[in-house]
Amino acid sequence: MSTPDFSCVITAAEGGEDALAASVESVLDQSLRAVEALVVLPAGAPAALRAAAGSLAGRSPDRVRLLDPGADSVAALRNTGLEAARGTYVLVLDRGERLQQHACRNLWEAGERTRADLVAGRWTRLTGDGTKEREPSWQHTLFPGSRTVGRFAEAPELAVHDALVTGFCLRREALERHALRYDEDLTHSGIPFGPLAASVVGRIALVRRRIVTGRAVPDAGRDLAGLVEAHRRVCHVLVAQGLADLREERDRAFLLDHLVPLVRGFPERPAAERDRIAATAARVLTGCVPEPVLLTLPPVERVGVRLLERGDADGVLTAAYALRRRGTVAAPLVTGDDGRTYWAGGPDPVLDVTELGHRYRAFGELKLMNRLTRYEAEGRRVLLEGRLVLPAHTGPDPEGPLTAHLEFRVRDGSRTFRAPVDALRPDATGIGWSVRADLTRLLRPFGPRDTVWDVRMVVEDGRTRSVSDLFAAHDLVGPADRSPARPRLGRATGDTWQPYITLRDHLALRLEARRRPARTARGLVHYATHFRPARRARLLLRGLRKRLDGLHARGFKTSVYRSWLLRLPVRKGSVVFESHMGTCYGDSPRAVHEEVRARGLPLRCVWSYADSPAGFPADARLVRRWSWRYLWALARAEYWVDNQGFPVHLDKPSGTSYLQTWHGSAYKRMGFDETRVRMQNAPQRERLQRAVHRFDHFLVRSGHDERTLARAYRLPEATLLRTGYPRNDVLLAARARDESEGRLPRPALAAELGLPDHRKVVLYAPTFRGGPGKRKRQRLLLDAARFAERFGDRYTLLVRAHYLEAASLPACPPGTVVDVSRHHDVSELLALADVLVTDYSSIMFDYALLDRPIVLFAPDLDAYAAERGSYFDLREKAPGPVTATEEELFAVLSRLKTADTGFQERRAAFAEEFGAYDRGDAARAVVDTVFARHVVPSRTARTGEARR
After folding, report:
1. I want to staple 192 with a disulfide (CB 3.0 to 4.6 A). Which of 109, 146, 168, 233 is the partner?
2. 889-898 pLDDT, tens per residue?
3. CA distances for 146 relative to 143, 163, 564, angstroms
């Protein structure tokens, strides 16, 4: 081969024949053909490795070269490869790494186009057991697109994380010009080499394409001292380049990328290795972990790193359990003189875990770590000892009878066996315990299906019950701890109990076949269930099950509905109500239903529910959404009433009248005004149009709705009912009550939620930020814990997530933050709230009718408006202050009365513009119009149109 475009240096290692073959073959399979592989063998390489390398070189002698420098260190082997390289560009692959098929071509084209000396791309690494791969999360921000920078200082994030450990190439001219070599005195020499090269070469090109896969999972415990030294050298590079301000970011990334995973993996390591790593950490981490950087980590992460820095192996193991089981109290907690909560060993700002909120939960509510410290098997009997952690602020009732027992529960089942705890030794920080049990006699499984049993402990004090798994390091139990088993179906189904520690770090027992009768029986069962007739029978059963499942599929139900159910006659007086796709009993459909019920109209009401019927009216017939009963009810109903949309694939029967109450006025663009809808293909847009053409009545509450919603959904004029929203009748009644009687006493809901009269109520109700899909749990933009800390003595924060989402709330002092996302009717919450905090939700249009303060918390207002589009400038028409940061929001809330004074006239104008048709009698007007033939004439009221 003449001068190749690429030289790929591959270091071989003992026992890595398959990995070497994978790396070399990925080089030979490149779409850019002028690529050579340089395989560098270590000194004393075993015969198997030499044979594998020789075979690869023999297959492609002109493209694979073998180098045997007689060196041992990886850095020396790589330097040998760099010196022997002949290509225009040089790339180094670590053990087992593979190039993507077009990797060299993508790097070469970027280098030639930009004349860059260094070209870097994305890479993936193995995770878990090594069967899956994923990119480091920080690569998404590093490679938002391909780009070129003139010098390293323009892309310093390359050195914040270990981005240049693989997946990059260097122009050989630059390599030789700057005499770049790996540090042979350093085990982790690949970490500083990339940043050093980037700092001295000229132009750098970043390619968004993936270059390398198969990078090994980094093991910080293998040579922690070398890893720390490599980190220090990268920091020296940053300082030398005048980027000392990035040192803090680099330190934080080092903690999160290396030390925190090291802590998290402690339970999987043997005790001797844990002690070795802790001793090394105490020696090398001193001065390497700046406290200001450490304080930026989440609480448990920083605790684990601090204990590692101290060399406390047992403490690190405890922190690891807390990391692997979020929300678990893994160590005794103490309260300092400042009222803060500290991990055992405090007070120390790094050990401050107040924000975890453990102190706000009682004994029975906390997830406590129950650490198994001893497991010994002596024939049929076993001895278990452990300790249950107790925080200082709570525990079992000292006056009550303290008892405990172990539960052995079959996995994925309900069968349970119990063993009483023989001894309980409570003290200030926990409860020591021990159990001796005849395991063979106690556990009597059937045998074939109940082979795995989880163990947990239940502690009771007469009133409170605490349940905890038995945590243990993975090396606590082993083959020597086996016990004989006696299944009910005989020992041919299993004869030995083998204890083991699960991937979630708790004790479990597995029924095994160790002796010949049981092994023979299991072999026969395996043969009987796997030989050809049995396999065919399983396939037939699988096919039958699939056909049966198909009877419950929505596609099949839709075809039956259209072909058969729509032929059924309409049942006069039957009404199907649905609110927010069956997720709640609320909104305008509820108001209409309650008006119908209050007036005693002869209508047969049916409500649909999505998940649970809890909270829905007992006097109505309830049907689960998409069930056969639901389809039957829709096909036979004379009226459909909902606020979101019945399933788009279900046609409306010819004799049915559809009332669409809708769910709010529009700030963001809707329907055919949405960019997402405009980008859809013709069949998708036609499906939406057919869905809205089912509406016979559509409620609007202002001229704004007519100009936006009605036009966006292309609704005929005849379908519009200008009555306002029935759900808002209670708000107008509440406002009238405020003006005549005042705010107190509060509605009954306040007592149900435990809200004291001396605190004002702030309702936080953000808008939906996702797209079509399943319900998701979202992180709120507002930090509820910070709110509680700042205003807990003045306000109670009610959090109402969108019905398509769920909120993740931190633990806060009792009475300061309450999740009301599951409350059925938001109108009741609005009537209760003293202040509304929202962003772009249509809830602001309704709340304005109460003439109470509104604060808009919109950190991403410009980005949201650009992405979703809007019908007006929110800052111009906002009914209250528009805040972009938490500090601005908190400043407004701290002086709410003063801040609201300047917005009273704007709020009144806002309510008049967007709620002109809301007069307080919308439910009556809607019932009189839609259900006119069922209304007694003498009781008929004027419609909203007539009132105008």
Report:
1. 233
2. 999 999 999 9
3. 7, 15, 56
